[in-house]
Design goal:
Layout: E1 3-7, E2 10-13, E3 18-25, E4 33-39, E5 46-52, E6 58-60, E7 68-73, E8 78-83, E9 92-99, E10 109-112, E11 116-121
């Protein structure tokens, strides 16, 4: 069974930093793209960042480019996103996901974690 478990969320002040982790199991990592999405109350789930397990290429939404860094550790089977210079608009539930096709749409991802709450105070 595929499992994706996020951790590292919490409350942080604007301008602060946070690192989220996603522990992955039951997945052949070379065959899957990993991504981070977020969903704020009343908003649709939106793409944040993605990384190819096979190629190591990274991709970012314009809203987080330069502030967030996605990475992975194959030995630990863990996906990360380092979030710096956080803004109140970054407040959302953050989800990690595994997909094999496109990068930017939630429909491109087949497996999802339960999410971790990130709250950025002003």
């Amino acid at each position: 069974q595929v499992q994706l478990v996020e951790s590292g969320g919490g409350l942080v002040q604007a301008g602060g930093s946070l690192r989220l982790s996603c522990a992955v199991s039951g997945l052949t990592f070379s065959a899957w793209t990993m991504g981070w999405f977020r969903q704020a109350p009343g908003k649709e789930r939106e793409f944040v960042a993605a990384i190819s397990w096979r190629g190591g290429s990274t991709y970012y939404a314009d809203s987080v480019k330069g502030r967030f860094t996605i990475s992975r550790d194959n030995a630990k089977k863990t996906l990360y996103v380092q979030m710096n210079s956080l803004k109140p608009e970054d407040t959302a539930i953050y989800y990690c996901a595994a997909g094999g096709g496109g990068l930017y749409s939630s429909a491109d991802y087949a497996y999802w974690g339960q999410g971790t709450q990130v709250t950025v105070s002003s």
